[in-house]
C-alpha cells in the first residue's frame, strides 16, 4: 500500500450511524449494538438536536471542546479559549446530580472568524495538562446528527469498542475495496468522493453560514441605491462645473 493511499481520507458532511461505524464509509450493516441503537433513534426520530433548552447562542460561532481534565473549571477554560477571540458564552457540561465536569464544553465567540481561529489553532492544545480536541458544533450544523449517548457520535477510543469515523479525529480512509453504490444509495448513505480525497494532514473546513436569498436581495438593493446616489452626485457636480464656466 502506498503512502498516498494511507494518507488519503475524507470527512462526513452528513451523519449516518452505519457509515460512522465504518472505517472507510462503505459499511451497509451495523457492526455493533450501539450503531444499531443509533439507527433506530434516527429512523424513529427519537432525537431532537434543537430540543435542549440549555443550548443557546449562534452555532456558527460555537466550538465543541472535548477531552478536558475533570479538574478544569469555567474560569480556566475561559482563560485558555480567550487566546483565540472574545468568548461570548461558555457552557462546561456537568453531571446533573453530582455537578462534576463531564469533560467537554461548548464555547461561543463573538464572530465566526474567532470561532474558526479556535477551531484551527486550539485543536490538540493543552489545557490543564490535557490535550483537548476542538470541533465545530455538529449538534446543530451536521444533518442527521446522533450523539454518543444514543450510539452515535464521532471519534472515541479503541478501549471503548465503539469507534466512530468521518470526523476530525478519525476521518474515513479511502476505500481499498469495491464501493457498493447501490446498497449505499438504498440506505441513504453518501458514497466516498472518489478522486476528491483529502490528505490526512489537511484541516477540514467547518460549515459556513449560507446567506439567505432575502439578504442577498437586500444587499443588491443597497448596492444599487448606492450606485444611483453616486451617479446623482456626479451629475450635480458636473452641472455645477458647467454653471461656473458659464459665469
Short description:
The protein is built from eight helices and nine strands. It is an alpha+beta fold and 247 residues long.
Features:
247 residues, three-stranded antiparallel beta sheet, 34% helix, nucleus, snRNA binding, RNA-binding, RRM domain-containing protein
Explain the layout of strands and helices.
Elements: H1 3-7, E1 8-10, H2 17-20, H3 33-44, E2 62-66, H4 74-81, E3 87-94, E4 101-109, H5 112-121, E5 126-127, E6 130-131, E7 133-136, H6 138-141, E8 172-173, H7 181-187, E9 198-199, H8 213-246
Antiparallel strand pairs: 1-8, 1-9, 2-4, 2-7, 3-4, 5-6
Describe this structure as you would to a colleague.
- With 247 residues, the chain is an alpha+beta fold.
- 34% of the residues lie in helices and 15% in strands.
- It has helices at residues 3-7, 17-20, 33-44, 74-81, 112-121, 138-141, 181-187, 213-246; strands at 8-10, 62-66, 87-94, 101-109, 126-127, 130-131, 133-136, 172-173, 198-199.
- Strands 3-4-2-7 form a four-stranded antiparallel sheet, covered by helices on one side. A three-stranded antiparallel sheet has the order 8-1-9.
- A hairpin with a 2-residue loop joins strand 5 (126-127) and strand 6.
- The longest helix is centred in the last third of the chain and has 34 residues, at 213-246.
- It is globular, with a radius of gyration of 24 Å.
- The model has no long low-confidence stretch (mean pLDDT 87).
